[in-house]
């Protein structure tokens, strides 16, 4: 696929995966509009993108706020006339036992990680449907396919995103609009730092770089792939869960209990 002059809207472009992807797509000639809540960090992304794609820009927008999302999408459409690719990447995390997690935290996770995707997609879709083309890319997580300890609120928001993506795939493909959902395991970004001082150490073979994720997302767009799990071998674990859910739960449950018991000692 040729990204030259394609208009790409990426949420959460001020940091991590979104920032890397915004710069990589701008390098391929796309006109990228990146959004986030921190204007200062966005300006850094914007400056980097404009080296290769002078029309690329950044907009301050909180995806958890419907009015801000509508204003952003309307602004992009009136400036560039179209959105070829919408990448719903903005996200926040948490790590706490469910009973100790304040309801407000779970609401905020749902508003950002799930409703943010709903707001952006709902606002961008009418113009894609009218043109009979477009691509919606949702950056989910392996936590949207497999539940895990102490991240129930996060998992729920990503499971919701995966359900939305699968339904949209069936609704939108006949209209000429592609849908992809990307499910990475741990990625080397500052994601954990905002909510976890001592994140559990993931095995090195599981952790991928934002560069790797960005390249995989670009490949998924080019190949119109629906679902991509990263690193790719993790797809086997997801398949194992799907094929033998009871056995999977027994094994995962034993491992999680071991983690809880080790923490107690
Ligand atoms: N890192 C991982 O281990 C990992 C693994 C699997 C999936 N993911 C998913 O990948 C996506 C990107 O994560 P990352 O690792 O790149 O995290 P990150 O480095 O923390 O970046 C998150 C981005 O989202 C933006 N954001 C957060 N809340 C927002 C809101 N309400 N409105 C607009 N922008 C918002 C942040 O910008 P501002 O702070 O400026 O708003 C930032 O640009 C997330 O959806 C995450 O769930 C991450």
Range of strand content: 5-15%
Q: Tell me the name of the CATH homologous superfamily.
A: NAD(P)-binding Rossmann-like Domain
Helices and strands, in N-to-C order? EHEHEHEHEHEHEHH
Q: Tell me about the largest β-sheet.
A: 7 strands, parallel
Report the CATH C-level class: Alpha Beta
For the CA atoms, what is the radius of gyration?
18 Å
CATH architecture: 3-Layer(aba) Sandwich
Question: Which consecutive residue ranges, at least 5 long each, have pLDDT under 50?
Answer: none
CATH topology category name: Rossmann fold
The tally of domains stands at 1
* Shape estimate: globular
> For the terminal residues, how far apart are their CA atoms?
54 Å
Question: Helical segment tally?
Answer: 8
Bound molecule kinds, no repeats: NADP nicotinamide-adenine-dinucleotide phosphate
As laid out across the biggest beta sheet, the strand order is 3-2-1-4-5-6-7
Helix content: 40-55%
Number of strands: 7
What is the mean pLDDT?
Answer: 96
What structural category characterises the helix and strand content? Answer: alpha/beta
Structure, explained:
The chain is α/β, with parallel strands linked by helices. It has one domain (7-232): 3-Layer(aba) Sandwich (Rossmann fold), CATH 3.40.50. The protein is 50% helix and 14% strand. It has helices at residues 16-27, 39-50, 66-80, 103-131, 152-172, 210-223, 234-243, 245-264, and strands spanning 7-11, 31-36, 57-60, 85-88, 134-139, 177-184, 227-230. The protein has a 7-stranded parallel sheet, sandwiched between helices. Strand 5, helix 5 (152-172) and strand 6 form a beta-alpha-beta unit. Residues 11-18, 35-38, 41, 62-64, 89-92, 112, 139, 141, 184, 186-187, 189-191 line the site of NADP nicotinamide-adenine-dinucleotide phosphate.
């Amino acid at each position: 696929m040729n990204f030259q002059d394609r208009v790409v809207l990426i949420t959460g472009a001020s940091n991590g995966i979104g920032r890397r992807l915004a710069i990589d797509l701008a390098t391929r000639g796309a006109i990228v509009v990146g959004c986030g809540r921190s204007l200062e960090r966005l300006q850094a992304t914007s400056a980097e993108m404009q080296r290769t794609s002078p029309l690329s820009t950044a907009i301050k927008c909180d995806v958890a706020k419907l009015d801000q999302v509508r204003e952003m999408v309307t602004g992009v459409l009136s400036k560039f006339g179209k959105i070829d690719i919408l990448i719903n990447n903005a996200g926040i995390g948490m790590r706490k036992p469910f009973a100790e997690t304040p309801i407000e935290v779970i609401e905020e996770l749902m508003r950002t990680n799930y409703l943010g995707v709903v707001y952006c997609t709902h606002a961008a879709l009418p113009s894609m449907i009218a043109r009979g083309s477009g691509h919606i890319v949702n950056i989910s997580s392996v936590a949207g396919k497999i539940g895990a300890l102490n991240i129930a609120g996060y998992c729920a928001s990503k499971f919701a995103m995966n359900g939305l993506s699968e339904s949209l795939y069936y609704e939108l493909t006949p209209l000429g609009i592609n849908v992809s959902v990307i499910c990475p395991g741990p990625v080397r970004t500052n994601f954990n730092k905002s909510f976890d001082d001592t994140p559990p150490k993931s095995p090195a073979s599981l952790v991928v770089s934002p560069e790797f994720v960005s390249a995989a997302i670009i490949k998924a767009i080019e190949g119109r792939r629906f679902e991509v799990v990263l690193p790719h071998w993790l797809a086997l674990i997801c398949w194992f869960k799907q094929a033998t859910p009871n056995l999977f739960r027994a094994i995962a449950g034993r491992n999680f209990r071991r983690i809880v018991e080790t923490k107690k000692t």
